[in-house]
Amino acid sequence: MIYITPVAQKHFSKLLVGKKSGTQIRVFVVNPGTVRAECGVCFCPPEEFKPSDMVIKFDLFSVHIDPIYMPFLKDAKIDVIINKLDSQLTIKAPNATKECNNTINEMNHDSLEDRVRHVLQFQINPQLELHGGSVSLVRITEDLLAVIKFYGGCNGCAMASYTIKEGIETTLKNLFPELKGVLDMTQHQHGTHSFY
Question: What residues are designated binding site for [4Fe-4S] cluster?
């Protein structure tokens, strides 16, 4: 389970005051189970709550966590160190770099679709969540194109095409050379939800 110190709880409560009503905190891991693993914290407005989220309730807010990150966040501690000039959020997660049963190496026997979904969930989405967005795999075509769909802050974002080519497509093609490319089937509608 995640431990959030009383100082960090107070810090989060203050930050949430100016946010949209119902906004909570989301904790995630970028590149979990690798030496490059990093834990992150972001705001989580109500429209980004997922039915599958693990929810940890505190006195003044709740923390939402995608269940896939739970093994990596076991025994994690979130604290805020305050000095005279500023404050710094610290996250210690001793299991973030440990391989769990879901790692890509152990998924090699799974279908290409399952492996691509895994990478989107574990490597791409944690980065997109920083901007309030996510992406999912719709299907792999017969021509070996990965058809994806954006949600949240990525829907209508002016940077979506760059994210696809430079981020998602490059990552997927490096990991899965058999893939020919990525197609975006999102009906992009720019609005207040869009990151850019």
Answer: 154, 157
